[in-house]
Amino acid sequence: MSEPGGFRTKGKPRKSGRSVRNSSKDDLDYLFRIFYEIKVSEGRSARTLKQYDENFRFFMSYLESREIPKSIGKIVKFDGHEYKTVGLATSIINTRLKTLRVFFSTIQDEDYILGNPMKGVKNLKEDVTDIEVINTDVMRSLLAAPDQRYFPDSN
User: Fold this and answer.
1) CB 108 within 8 A of CB 115
2) pLDDT digits (tens, 9 = 90+) for 89-122
3) Torsions phi, psi of 18, nearest 5?
């Protein structure tokens, strides 16, 4: 089913009493507050909520640094992965992208937006490093190394 603006819905009926787009609901800060309250009500941990907040603030800084309006109507697709230029590890970039995927997916599912600007944005490929496994002889010598005659916690 096609909607105004060329977005397609997933065939779900709209939640009654909600207007999908108006001036305040187009604002990313407003949408994030809704998202955050949804995640609080779902019982997300304080650590997860803090991570959502930090990653969203980083995204807002990204938009500001590139003079991109903080409006859902102005974001077509978050692209480019220019986080790399600030020296962040690939795993951190991917974590921040995950937060944005969850955020936009949630507000789309709640019918605050018609399309998801994160659709198609993929994680960066992470380098895989081989882990060197120690052999049995080295393991035995490591286990034998401590002085087993003295234990500080025992009297």
Assistant:
1) yes
2) 788 888 888 988 999 899 899 988 888 888 888 8
3) -115, 135
Estimate to the nearest angstrom the gap between the alpha carbon of 59 and the chain centroid.
Answer: 10
CATH of the domain at 47: 1.10.150
- Domain ranges, residue 17: 4-127
Q: Is residue 132 part of a domain?
A: no
CA 39/CA 106 separation, integer angstroms: 9
Most confident of 42-46, 115-119, 124-128: 42-46
SS3 83: helix
Asked whether residue 151 is assigned to any structural domain, the reply reads no
d(CA 124, CA 98): 11
Q: What is the pTM of this model?
A: 0.55
Amino acid at 63: L
Assigned domain for 149 exists:
no
Give residue-wise pLDDT tens across range 73-92. 666 444 454 444 445 678 88
71 forms beta bridges with: 27
